[in-house]
Amino acid sequence: MIVDIHAHYFPKEYTDLLVRIGGRSLPESARALTARPIRQDDSSGIPTRLQQMEEAEVQMQVLSPAASPPYAEKEADAVEAARLINDTYAELARKYPGRFNAVVSLPLPHIDASLREMERGLDQLGMLGVSMTCSCFDRSTAETEFEPLYQEMNRRGAVLNYHPIQNGICSPMINDYGFTVSVGASLEDAAIVLHLIARRVPERFPNIKYVVPHLGGIIPMLLQRLDNQAPRQHPNLPERPSVTARRFYYDIVGHGSQAALLCAWKAFGADHLVAGSDYPVLLAFETYRQNFFYLRESSLPAADVDK
Fold first, then answer.
1. What pLDDT, in 10s, does the model give residues 162-194?
2. Would 72 disulfide with which of 77, 161, 292, 299, CB 3.0-4.6 Å?
3. What class, spelled out in words, does domain 2-306 have in CATH?
4. C-beta separation of 59 from 1 below 8 A
5. Rounded CA separation 66/6 (Å)
6. Which residues 6+ apart lie within 8 Å of 143 measured at CB?
7. pLDDT bracket for residue 300 (50, 70, 90)
8. Element (H, E) at 2
9. Domains of the chain: which residue ranges?
10. Can you tell me the distance from the alpha carbon of 183 to that of 153, in angstroms, rounded to the nearest whole number?
């Protein structure tokens, strides 16, 4: 059975709170497109979700709020939102043991409050790791102000799931042309990998299990180029960028693209690809079952598919 590490659940109470507190970090050009989450969920949809999980042979979904994290300028607002979404996920996990769990959502950019919520989520709520978006209020989450979070996750040996926040890497070259979500999300995925490498975060915090979505965006195609350019552009790195990139894990969300899957498999190896779906977003394009079974239709070795 499959553990889907990249799934979402958007309770109405939470999404309404985000709208009220203005808790999303988006450039003006992208805000009109993504001012609210794609959908809202409630408990009435859980039986259908569970049926789709059975059809896809998914044992458990690991939930996060996708590009709608509990971020807000006012600490009290961010904490309220973080506690609400984490408590909601914890209640689902209690009600459906073994079928749902979550990664802890943090009330960023407030570091001390985030450390407290991380402790609560991991130690009291029993969550499986931590969720961070690739940036927060247009600051990469690889920057030094987030270092206390990495220190604590490193101490715990925690899983860290990244997710795009749908800001098109703050670029009008992406957002002004309507590619904030379709292309910008993959560029955000790639950007956080590059930022982590450039800031030498994995070297300093090696006990964290870094998980990047969407097959790592364009990273699989850049490894050799990064290695070739590193001596001139980043001469102080402790190892080739490709070596560091292969220390991360990447989920298989690829909109059914065999080419993207094969590229990531060749770049990272099957041991560093993990099951993920982007549920329920993927349902606009494919069935839940298809998201996983496209691996079986690929030319990957059967032993690697089973991993």
1. 999 999 999 999 999 999 999 999 999 999 999
2. 77
3. alpha beta
4. yes
5. 9
6. 195, 199
7. confident
8. strand 2-8
9. 2-306
10. 30
